[in-house]
Amino acid sequence: MSSAVPSAGATAVPVSSPAEVPVSASVRLRLAALARASALATRGVVGLDAGRAGMRMTASVGLRVDGVVCAAMPGGRYQVSVHLVAAMVPLRQLADAVRARIEREAAIAGLADRLGRVDVAVEDVQVRTEEARP
Amino acid sequence: MSETESTRTRTRTGEASEPAKGSSSKAISRSGDEPLSSELGSTTIADAVVTKIASIAAREVRGVYDLGGGTARALGGVTRSVGIGDERMQGVTVEVGEREAAVDLTVVVEYGESIPRIAGALRENITRRIEGMTGLTVTEVNIAINDLFFPGDEAAAEPARVD
Predict the structure, then answer these.
(1) What is the pLDDT of residues B106-131, one digit of tens each?
(2) What is the DSSP string of B62-111?
(3) pLDDT score at B58
(4) Domain boundaries, chain A
(5) Distance separating alpha carbons of residues B134 and B141, to the nearest angstrom
(6) Residue B30 DSSP label
């Protein structure tokens, strides 16, 4: 990514997948991108919600991941909070599926030892999923 | 029919004739199977989610014409016309805790329908939907019948002033 990109979260470039995050990026940002991609790949997830002011995000060095908040925990791990917009499906099972997928993908990416709690917040539901998808 | 003259049925779960608020009765209550929080992480369901589920469940009940008081419905019409409103949120207030939820509804029913039947069906359907989708235990579904809808009310709208 270009170093000309401003570092402030609001003007940072949104990231949708881990592939868009450079290897040199922070673990925090890599985990956030991984969590976002994992959540979006889970059946029943319509989208992620960054909130009205767009404050639910993780930003670092000119990049930002919307809808995921990644915060440092003691011991070098990161707590990941994922804010979902869901379809009309059983939400508790959906949250468990998202959590499991994030843990699985983190293990594949070699980040399992850096992943802490995964909190899932269902912020909204959409009656017809086709309305949200482009 | 104004709200002050309206037929008002405010029934607490498990105490059909008791209008008192703050009851601890939980006749509809069903325990969730699993905790919403563990060392692996927590699951949070936003109030707006429960509100939307309750509203959709209420509209599924036969005899429910609309949700919301007169003012809410009038404002809802205006906000919808400019594309910022969501009718699914009007007439429904929820309180959501970590494991339980309580729902307050304001309902317009169709004239001729049995209000006790509608109230019972609302309570059952809303509880089933919320518990099924969120795992939260529904402790209360409080229903205020705000107005009656008469067939033909919509047709009596103001005639067009131009041809």
Answers:
(1) 999 999 999 999 999 999 999 999 99
(2) TTEEEES-HHHHHHHHHHHHTT---GGGTTEEEEE-SSEEEEEEEEEEET
(3) 95
(4) 13-126
(5) 16
(6) -
User: pTM of the prediction?
Assistant: 0.74
Q: Of how many residues is chain B composed?
A: 163
Mean pLDDT, residues A85-105: 95
Residue among B111, B116, B104 nearest B55 (CA): B104
ipTM of the complex: 0.80
Task: Name the residue among A86, A118, A123 with its Cβ closest to that of B41.
Answer: A118
- List residues of chain A with CB under 8 Å from any CB of chain B: 80, 86, 88-92, 95-96, 99, 117-125, 127
CB contact under 8 A, A117 and B39: yes
Q: Do B135 and A92 touch (CB under 8 A)?
A: yes
Report helix, strand or coil for A124: strand
What mean pLDDT comes out for the span B80-109?
A: 82
pLDDT of B3 strictly over 60: no
Looking at CATH, the fold of the domain delimited by A13-126 is given as Alpha-Beta Plaits (3.30.70)
Alpha-carbon span B153 to B106, nearest angstrom: 19
pLDDT value, residue A6: 42
